[in-house]
Amino acid sequence: MAVALTILPRPRSADEARVLSVPEATTILRAAHAAGVDITATCGGRGRCTSCRVKFVSGTVPPPTIMDEVQLGDDLVRDGYRLACQCHVTEPITVEPAPPLDETSFQILGPGEHADGLGRIAIASGVVKQVVKVNLPREEHHQTSDLEQLLAELGLTTDAVTPPVLAALPSALRDDPAGVTVTTFGGRILAVERGDTSAMKFGLAIDVGTTSVVSTLLELESGERLASISSLNPQSVFGGDLMSRIAFAQFNPGNLRKLRTRIVGVLNRHVGELCRESGVLAKWIYKAVIVGNTCMHHLLLGIDPSYVGLAPYAPVMRHPLVLPARDVPLTIAPDAVVCFLPLVAGFVGADAVGVALATRIHESEAIRIAVDIGTNGEVLLGSAAHLWACSAPAGPALEGAQIRHGMRGAAGAIDRVTVDDDVHVHTIAGAPAQGICGSGLIDLIAGLLDARVIDPTGLIQVEKRDALSPALRRRVEMRGEERIVVVVRDGEGGATREIVLTQQDVRQIQLAKGAIASGIALLQRVAGAPDDRIAELMLAGGFGNYVSIASAVRIGLIPPLPLDRIRYVGNAASLGAQACLLSEAERQRADTIARRIEHVSLAAHPDFEQVFVDAMNFPEPEHAR
Amino acid sequence: MAVALTILPRPRSADEARVLSVPEATTILRAAHAAGVDITATCGGRGRCTSCRVKFVSGTVPPPTIMDEVQLGDDLVRDGYRLACQCHVTEPITVEPAPPLDETSFQILGPGEHADGLGRIAIASGVVKQVVKVNLPREEHHQTSDLEQLLAELGLTTDAVTPPVLAALPSALRDDPAGVTVTTFGGRILAVERGDTSAMKFGLAIDVGTTSVVSTLLELESGERLASISSLNPQSVFGGDLMSRIAFAQFNPGNLRKLRTRIVGVLNRHVGELCRESGVLAKWIYKAVIVGNTCMHHLLLGIDPSYVGLAPYAPVMRHPLVLPARDVPLTIAPDAVVCFLPLVAGFVGADAVGVALATRIHESEAIRIAVDIGTNGEVLLGSAAHLWACSAPAGPALEGAQIRHGMRGAAGAIDRVTVDDDVHVHTIAGAPAQGICGSGLIDLIAGLLDARVIDPTGLIQVEKRDALSPALRRRVEMRGEERIVVVVRDGEGGATREIVLTQQDVRQIQLAKGAIASGIALLQRVAGAPDDRIAELMLAGGFGNYVSIASAVRIGLIPPLPLDRIRYVGNAASLGAQACLLSEAERQRADTIARRIEHVSLAAHPDFEQVFVDAMNFPEPEHAR
User: Fold this and answer.
1) Are B525 and B596 in contact (CB under 8 A)?
2) ω into residue B312 within 30 of 0, thus cis?
3) Which of A61, A138, A218, A282 has the fewest CB atoms lying closer than 10 Å?
4) CA distance readout (Å), A587 to A68, A345, A370
């Protein structure tokens, strides 16, 4: 049975509305394409991108599919958006395709007076693909070469090529009557492929953290995110934090090589998995942008970071590097441009530059703070007038590492905790509890502080447990020499082991949050910007997405600003990398920002000792209100 | 007992003569250095270079040592030159050190009206070493990096560096109070070494032939040749001539890789041996210049030469490439510049450009010819007005390959033959005869032609042997179906086997010499330059050094010019590479020359068939006189 499908013109387009009569249960995308209505489907209609999304204007909005939820997110789903490739027409409906805007601009976090201010940047990745037909002479007396014939078509010089490109020429130029597709970047040829492959143009944004590595595959023309993957930095076995990893590499070329191999290895595993998941061939990835901390950049480049770990903590280089992928080596197009964003100082890296870029903190009228929470955290504070940064070496505790029953945010991790008369936990995916991840730890400690199970110095109140509710009382005990709080008992909610918080765990969290809080406090002091002058505080980093802001304030991880001036901004460093991937103007801007950021050395500041000791303690209950 | 040693001032120097009283049997060099007289000894007085040579002005010139002969050659030895490091003072003598000229200029073959015209070029390799002291800040608040501090001293930008150079920075900048030595080329940093290594600056000239590979190590400041090595091109097992090697690689990436691995492997073996012999460290080699035929350049770069072997024989590229050594890879300084000279056409390569450069044929008033005899021979003909080139695919027969008892020019090879009433042979190093090398084959055939053992069509005259002398008669016979000439009998002169020349061998030589002779004849025809307009014919190629010119004329390998207009020029291609190694002006000139050379395709010329058939035959006896 045929059903009426009305497709409205895109906003700001000159098209007219089309009313189609389509067989029942056809997808909107297939029906539109069959009728010659142009709805973009970057991933080919496989639910792997968001380009075909439509907004329901009339008719019943169907329940979202998994693909709708994954690609569009809660907000768009709630607003009535669905993926046209996933949505079957079963009754008369009217839909409006997404504006074509997305195909030439890309959403960043942006500046703004409001907590949810968003910005857009124009897409111009610098990667250009063009199809050319090359006439090869058939007669011997022509003194020429394959390359010269190709360059004549392109208007480029011999400086534009490398041997791997030359190696591709002879067969590419002869194998396909359609011609060859030449990919260039800044006048240099990155690849020559037989036939017309001009639609295939992808890029990789990579955020290399001390503990986590996140890679995102984007389509370079539309800016669509096709796939993203996050894994543990495999260097972690050689040391959880930067200093221990530097110590491992220090003056030891063999260990330096091991660290480099690990990180290059995980990036290439990411390339393989992203390509498998998205159907993109690795050779179609022509640009990558890497943001990482200073030490990670050194290790990726095979440069000894020994002196990054010794006062005065000087990096070997700070400028933005651009290398061919084969020199990293990344297993994408061999001559793909791999761009390392610039560094600021030994412990303020390209990731901080990425955060600044994505949040537009450098353009802000008012003073804002961006806190990138991670093993090697960074704090940015400033405005268009002045921008300061410092490192906040939190260690991996907030990511669940070096905690007795800590774990990363995976199924079975306790990610939310409330404490009233007892301790109540929520686990990721509702699975039986296996451990506590960072956001759960912060909730837990915040709750235990309010319930006075922990005092402001961090001590678990075993001696005073009689003042607690009966249920809480049973959770607090000395076990041998050790003070503990039992969070989940063996068997509780299907848990297969007891999960406890130890006194040592509390100390680790105190050290971690103390590092970040004292970083924020000192930058505020340097800038002369007390809490009431801070227009906004942004929590960045993969971890920042999950933490309860109220709990973070309660334990003193961040200053007690009104909650509407605090927002999550997700992985802003990666978003900055994505912006530079899609826009050469943004990549140039990164360099300007890096030069503008003034590095503040915490340890060298005369007030540091006092600030740090203060920051180690938890706020008194009064402060938290 | 003390002996008087008088050292005259160098020509054109302001020094005064010095009379030294030296212990008997001291070397001149050691005595001079002990007295503070400055005689250059680039190799450190080990007889490995020519820089300490002195000319005897009075006193008995001692017999030359082996080192004198090897380094100085016959002409200088005859003129009374000796190496000061090898020559012991045993009676009162007066010597004059070599002019310091050699330290800033380099001898090439040069243009000239005379057969022994020599030219000199000014040395300016482009490789610059400078010692700098870098002040690293000690305080944390400096926002800088190792690289920025170094570049500030050098006045260079961050574009000047690559990751391998960055990797060397941190320890080099801190390990030696003397500072660091920075090597640059065209404003790019090739290496940073701890301490002062400014005296260590070497380069490599490489001639990659189809059959032979010759590498020469030079000191870049003085131009001294420190060591040279020649070996068989190990690709030969996959085909003796270019066409068979192209067929092996054609559309077969595995075989292409094999060919590349072989040639890169032999170059790196050369690096190892040259360094061992000269005491130079491979990391002190900062520049290499490669000349080879078009196919060899493609194979070295990993580029499929399939279409070089198919009409219209188009190369993939012809422009001069400059790559970092690690991309070849050559195991010299990783960022050393490896310069491939430009190519002219599919079968006229950089080696021809090298020959032109060394012989200055492109500057000549009169018309000259340069013949590079090799498996893939090349002929150049022209003057300052016009320059033509063609390939002469002789095959490896003239290098002793594909000949029944052929061998390369090593100990035991018959290298000279005279034929009167019998056949008389001379072997290299006087060793028992083991085979015949190229020069011996040409002598042998020339002699057999004059003795009418072979007729002008190349047929061995078994039927007419009764007209020969009794001794010759016994050497000519049918063996089975095969006509042969016995050159050496088993046991003769210690030979452990019989050495024969077969009819098939004669045919191979006819094909080889026919290819070269028809190349010369056709270029003469194209240029309208009969023999009497040819001012000079130069025989180049390793082989060209040993062949008897009279025999070469007798068999028609080269046209019958007056013998004083024919000269050996040795390995002119390698000499051209050496010139470009020592002089960037020469390397630029190579590009100009390559553009000027007009390639003549033999097979496409209407007269080719006739010319080639004529050239296959041997000249009639009358012609040879």
Assistant:
1) no
2) yes
3) A138
4) 31, 19, 20
- Shortest CB distance from A145 goes to which of B136, B314, B604? B314
Spatial contact of B299 and B249, defined as CB atoms under 8 Å apart: yes
Q: Where are the alpha helices (DSSP H) in B305-403?
A: 350-359
Question: Which residues lie closer than 8 Å to A47 by C-beta, 6 or more apart?
Answer: A65, A67, A71, A83, A85, A86
Shared-domain flag, residues B281 and B236: yes
Task: Return d(Cα A345, Cα B346) in angstroms, integer.
Answer: 53
Q: In what order do the strands lie in the sheet with B598-599?
A: B566-570, B534-540, B367-372, B377-382, B387-392, B598-599
Tell me, yes or no, if A135 comes closer than 8 A to chain B by beta carbon. Answer: no
DSSP bridge partners of A83: A53
Alpha carbon A490 to its chain centroid, in Å, reads 36
- The 8-class DSSP code of residue B610 comes to H
- Asked if residue A305 belongs to a domain, the reply is yes
Distance CA B409, CA B230 (A): 11
Show which of B84, B101, B118 is a domain's final residue: B101
Chain A residue numbers with beta carbons less than 8 Å from the beta carbon of B142 are 312, 314
Tokens of B346: 């599919």
Q: Which two tokens stand for residue A615?
A: 């920051």
Shared domain check, B494 and B414? yes
One domain for residues B42 and B84:
yes
Given B137, B159, B194, which residue is the final one in a domain?
B194
Question: B113 lies in a domain?
Answer: no
Contact B318 A145 (CB under 8 A): yes
In A363-454, where does DSSP find H-type helix?
A: 438-450
Nearest to B543 by CA among B372, B381, B393, B380: B372
User: How far B317 CA sits from the closest chain A CA (Å)?
Assistant: 5
User: Touching check for A174 and chain B: CB below 8 Å?
Assistant: yes
Partner residues linked to A96 by β-bridges: A55
Burial label for B431, CB within 10 Å (0-12, 13-18, 19+), is middle
Domain count, chain B: 5
Half-sphere exposure of B367 (CA within 13 A, CB side): 19
Same domain, B142 and B284: no
Rounded to the nearest angstrom, the minimum Cα separation between A579 and chain B is 24
Give the CA count within 13 Å in the CB-facing half-sphere of B332.
Answer: 30
DSSP 3-state of B613: helix
Q: Are strands A202-208 and B212-219 parallel, antiparallel or unpaired?
A: unpaired
Token couple for B557: 């390998």
- Total-model pTM: 0.80
Contact A215, A277 (CB under 8 A): no
Query: Given A147, A314, A603, which is nearest B145 (Cβ)?
Result: A314
Q: Specify the residue for token string 């091109």.
A: B233
Of residues B416, B399, B409, the one with CA closest to residue B487: B416
Beta bridge partners of residue B371, listed in sequence order:
B379, B539
DSSP conformation class of B432: P
Residue that is written with structure tokens 């006189």 in the block: B625
Q: Are A573 and A207 in contact (CB under 8 A)?
A: yes
The encoded tokens of residue B268 equal 């790196």
Residue B236: pLDDT band with limits 50, 70, 90: confident
DSSP label at residue A396: G
Same domain as B500, residue B443? yes
pLDDT at A43 over 80: no
- Whether residues B159 and B217 share a domain: the answer is no
The confidence band for B118, taking pLDDT boundaries of 50, 70 and 90, is low
3-state secondary structure of A297: helix
3-state secondary structure of B600: coil
Residue-range definition of the domain harbouring residue B45: 2-101
Question: In this structure, is the dihedral angle defined by the CA atoms of residues B40, B42, B47 and B50, taken in order, positive or negative?
Answer: negative
Q: What are phi and psi of A114, to 5 degrees?
A: -95, 155
**Which pLDDT score is estimated for A486?**
96
Binned at pLDDT 50, 70 and 90, residue B396 comes out as: confident
Instruction: Tell me the backbone φ, ψ of residue A526, rounded to 5 degrees.
Output: -60, -40
